[in-house]
Amino acid sequence: MWLAYCFGQKDIDLGAGREIFDYSHRQKEQDVDKELQDGAEQEDTWPSEGAEALARNLLVDGETGESFPAQVPGGEDQTALSLKECLRLVEATCPFGENAEFPADISSITEAVPSESEPPGLQNNLLSPLLTETESPFDLEQQWQDLMSIMEMQAMEVNTSTSEILYNAPPGDPLSTNYSLAPNTPINQNVSLHQASLGGCSQDFSLFSPEVESLPVASSSTLLPLVPSNSTSLNSTFGSTNLAGLFFPAQLNSTANDTAVPELPDPLGGLLDEAMLDEISLMDLAIEEGFNPVQASQLEEEFDSDSGLSLDSSHSPSSLSSSEGSSSSSSSSSSSSSSTSSSASSSFSEEGAVGYSSDSETLDLEEAEGAVGYQPEYSKFCRMSYQDPSQLSCLPYLEHVGHNHTYNMAPSALDSADLPPPSALKKGSKEKQADFLDKQMSRDEHRARAMKIPFTNDKIINLPVEEFNELLSKYQLSEAQLSLIRDIRRRGKNKMAAQNCRKRKLDTILNLERDVEDLQRDKARLLREKVEFLRSLRQMKQKVQSLYQEVFGRLRDENGRPYSPSQYALQYAGDGSVLLIPRTLADQQARRQERKPKDRRK
DNA sequence: CGTTAGTGTCATCAG
DNA sequence: CACTGATGACACTAA
Prior knowledge:
- The structure is a single chain.
- This protein is mainly alpha-helical.
- It has 29 helices and six strands.
- The strands form three sheets. It has a two-stranded antiparallel sheet with strand order 1-2. A two-stranded antiparallel sheet has the order 3-4.
- Helix 6 crosses helix 29 (583-601), helix 14 (274-289) packs across helix 15 (293-305) and helix 25 (443-450) packs antiparallel against helix 28.
- The protein is rod-shaped, with a radius of gyration of 39 Å.
């Protein structure tokens, strides 16, 4: 039943369904998870009658590890074609891709092999690890283990968004949760479609590929000679519209009607070509990233370049941080018209959070930004960028912008001070300059002057505690003066602290934004990798299916008749041997193996 | 005239 | 306990 999921309706909707682009797909993911559990429960309900009896008929070749039915119902069991021969045949006729792998243990088989229903003519208990004996150059067992671990990952992780996205399973499809075998399994170029019966195909099979529609005919014609005994039921059972039983034609000839497998997953995954998958993955990205498809495609290009941070450099926090220098340079260049003058800010400590930026500076910055794409954060940041106070001292006209938030000062005064006309400067006597500077003084400076504080606010604020106390001791100051001085110092310190605080806050925000971007990229990249991985996984599974089918189809009993796939299945033992066992027994073992990981998960 | 960004200030807390 | 820095909250200004 594990395989059964792979051919569910999920795939049926694949071509047309667009819910993958639905932002509500997350909800569907939950539904899928729910369905997964339901499907697991369903498994336990599968019939296994006769398993014991059939199990008794099992023979295992002690030398080769191969197993044969000790007693085929109806006669002395002797495989007309040894498994080795079969393998050789298969190797000759169905060369595997570079990634051909086979189950290394029973569990793997039970997972990979379609159990239950099996089309009479099509040996669909596929995925048997028959090839171990061929001594493939690969460590097949190891590779299979890897494959299975991948499958587990897939089962655990992919069942969420990706499963939905990739296979577009209807929420109600209980089979959809397990698409690992062949949802959307692309038709493998290396596999003969005529011989490889690709699992149960739903009627929607035809939706995707006219080619596949012809599959039943081709398959039956090919397999009929191999399965003469089943030939009759084959044609009657598998119409072109019902390929569901191809893979799991459980007890086809018998009475079982496979109702236990209401909907067989669509092996048509194969019809979903890579381009489609790419598109899906991109769309997935687009959805998750909040990008539009165009942006998503751009994103993918970025991935290809693996550039990590490929955003505009002006957007990069690192560049922003390093933009201090550029900011400074731009400000210095923009200050060409400014005269030099000392101000309170000139003595600010370097570290002293003097993030004042001039309007002209901002203008220059914005011009530059316009060339590379304006970024609000960038501008903000630059305005807040740490700056050498000494540079501010070179911008007397801008001084007030940073320091003179003198609420008691008339705006007109500030305006006039902002950009005094050159003519005014020329005419400007020292009086006017003094007046101008006076207007630039802060409230505390005014207060200090009013209180006749004998030293500058700059000293009050920036002197170390010891020097500050020493300075106070040098003068005979009234209590009011001392109080004002302390207030000035406190406010001055706090002002710088506030500026530092705001800069930190801004930095933090920018860093967080960068982190979000990085994480989004990582997420998109991982998602893309997952899609690619699933694609290759499906291909591998299909290869295994085809091999299994090939081998099983060539097995003959002592009478030269093929084994019924509804009654027998190939099983891969842990020691690498291949067993031909009764179907019911295989199903039992499959269920047993499947429960383990699930229990583990719980 | 309302909004927004930038800034200064105060209150408060933590070290 | 005083001092200092950090930070939220508020007010003010300019755009």
